[in-house]
Specification:
Two copies of one chain form a homodimer.
Chain A: H1 3-12, H2 19-29, H3 37-47, H4 53-65, E1 69-74, E2 77-83, E3 90-94, E4 100-103, H5 109-119, E5 122-133, H6 135-139
Parallel strand pairs in A: 3-5
Antiparallel strand pairs in A: 1-2, 3-4
Helix pairs in contact in A: 2-3, 2-4, 3-4
The first copy, chain A, binds a DNA duplex through helix 2 and helix 4.
Chain lengths: 142, 142
Amino acid sequence: MNSKSWLTALSEHGYRLTEARRAVVAIIHSSQRALTPLEVYDSARLAYPELGLVSVYRTLEKLEELNLIQRVHQPAGCQAFISSAEGHKHLLLCKRCGQVTFFEGDDLEPLIKSISRRTNYAISEHWLQLFGLCENCQKSGS
Amino acid sequence: MNSKSWLTALSEHGYRLTEARRAVVAIIHSSQRALTPLEVYDSARLAYPELGLVSVYRTLEKLEELNLIQRVHQPAGCQAFISSAEGHKHLLLCKRCGQVTFFEGDDLEPLIKSISRRTNYAISEHWLQLFGLCENCQKSGS
DNA sequence: TTCCTATTGAAAATCTTTTTCAATTATAAA
DNA sequence: TTTATAATTGAAAAAGATTTTCAATAGGAA
């Protein structure tokens, strides 16, 4: 999924393709780690200085609505966004550099069924997130 | 773990036992669902009207520091707190009434080891949270 | 009971996010 | 192309949430 297809998706949902949106899409689409609205704003303004922070919020809102990005929850805060993976994937976050890696977690079904039986809950969603150090950060010491 | 032991814990860590703290502890300790600072404030003021919102924030901060409460992350927001379970437990949340149930998730180890092998991450923490409908809310229709 | 200092609540400050609004601009239609 | 129009913009204001400041108060050790 390249950055152009995000623009196409926006367009197909009746949203106009503006400079502000292109700038925001370019930044968040190419990031390997989750970015806050302010970080997107600061990075995107390097290429498009007229950009307003409000447009960043509004564009992130639309990208999230189209499932192109998703919010990342971390101990330090829950305002950051990253490109969504296709299909149902879970997140693995590097505690040092913030890099986000997706992984499949299908093996969860038996656990969920067992919890469901034990608690009598009808379970419809799950969040699984792992934290650790990526290969690079392990190498480069603490 | 009763509410008195939270007060003891606060006291043992050098914090004074004040009316404001007692009021906050009483409310959050007895809640079955996660409460935001504002919800704690509103509930606690019924018993102790002089309470200030600032003291709610400050008390929640200390309770979290002592691991007596923990922040609950939800699609709707991440500002709410619930009593912590003892030992390593995961959360199961009712999407309708908000009730929080803890469960053990030890069966996760094999999955985590496999992801670790596949991604070369050194995984040190995990978050697992399930969402669904509790028994009561299933009964009482949508 | 006294004294010291942690704690308090009110107000102000700070941050983040949302709303308002007049000007601009993307896009469909002519 | 040009035109018309409605979506979008950025700035400013508003709204919310959280933190800081500060003088007054009250917990608890002596």
